[in-house]
Design a protein that fits this description.
CATH class of the largest domain: Alpha Beta
Radius of gyration: 21 Å
Number of helices: 11
Number of domains: 2
Strand content: 5-15%
Number of strands: 10
Length: about 300
């Protein structure tokens, strides 16, 4: 990016205000890789801004409506990360079912030699599973689960063209009532805040498991923690949280939850592909060509 563009590197969006006036006046594009919000103040500080090229599939930290009002285009980097996020979701599901993190510790700690075999765990294959948000990534997860002989249920805004055996649910509570494990694969943003509500969590029940690879905002985190503490929810496997990276300290005391540091797309191959797509959108803008992955 430094080789291709006249670039100014900033650690945070709030640092835009610290740029000198001439630099801010000349800036036409922002290459964005952060969960810090870009709103009206940030956009208005760059009077010539015409493109926000976001690094990531989710763009809930960008005020897209405000950008559209100002004639600013927004792009993201979808699809190139689908496989890695889906793979991680399945890994979380299997690790939680088979208690694999504890199994590794069972060997390292010497417990295997001292105490013998670990307690039995639960099969991952053949389970009733729900996908809350059957978009690009949700579909990849569902296809992997189908190969694991799971019974697939899903919820989205409308039924999708899927195999006849996959069952659509018009609301998330109905979905949670029907399954043993619920995968949350929703887009972030105001429209999905707390979408997996206390009612959804209670419907999943004491034998149910919640896997979240979307955004921490999509789940009522307080309700989830309380349900995990009381046993009203059987378990969880989480790659996303509210207030990342300083997550709620109550998680650390829970033995029925797996905690991952938001690494769904964190492979060299996928992050390189995301960076390339971000740069390709920037290049398309400056060359006057159509943007590759426009959001607005």
């Amino acid at each position: 990016m430094e080789a291709a563009f006249d670039l100014r590197l900033l650690p945070h969006c709030r640092d835009l205000a610290g740029l000198d006036a001439s630099t801010r006046a000349a800036a036409e594009a922002v290459a964005y890789s952060s969960h810090d919000p870009i709103g009206t103040a940030e956009m208005d500080s760059l009077p010539s801004l015409r493109l926000i090229a976001h690094y990531g599939a989710g763009y809930d930290s960008v005020d897209v409506a405000a950008a559209s009002d100002r004639g600013i285009r927004v792009t993201n980097t979808p699809d190139v990360l689908n496989d890695d996020v889906a793979d991680l979701a399945i890994s979380l599901f299997v690790m939680q079912a088979r208690n694999l993190a504890a199994a590794d510790d069972w060997v390292r700690s010497g417990a295997w030699g001292e105490k013998g075999a670990m307690p039995l765990t639960r099969s991952a294959s053949g389970r009733r599973v729900g996908i809350c948000g059957l978009g690009r990534i949700g579909r990849e997860i569902a296809d992997r689960l189908a190969a694991m002989k799971c019974d697939i249920h899903y919820h989205s805004r409308a039924p999708k063209p899927v195999p006849a055996s996959w069952q659509f649910h018009a609301d998330p509570v109905s979905l949670a009532e029907a399954v043993d494990a619920l995968f949350v694969v929703l887009v972030g943003g105001k429209q999905t805040e707390g979408y997996v509500s206390r009612q959804v969590i209670d419907a999943l029940g004491p034998d149910g498991v919640l896997i979240n690879v979307s955004r921490g905002t999509t789940v009522d985190e307080t309700a989830m923690i309380e349900a995990l503490q009381s046993g009203r929810l059987g378990g969880a496997a989480l790659d996303v949280f509210l207030n990342e990276p300083t997550i709620d300290p109550r998680f650390s005391a829970l033995q029925n939850v797996l905690l991952f540091p938001h690494i769904g797309s964190a492979t060299e191959q996928t992050r390189n592909a995301m960076g390339q797509l971000q740069r390709d959108n920037l290049t398309a803008y400056f060359e006057g060509r159509p943007l590759l992955t426009p959001v607005n």
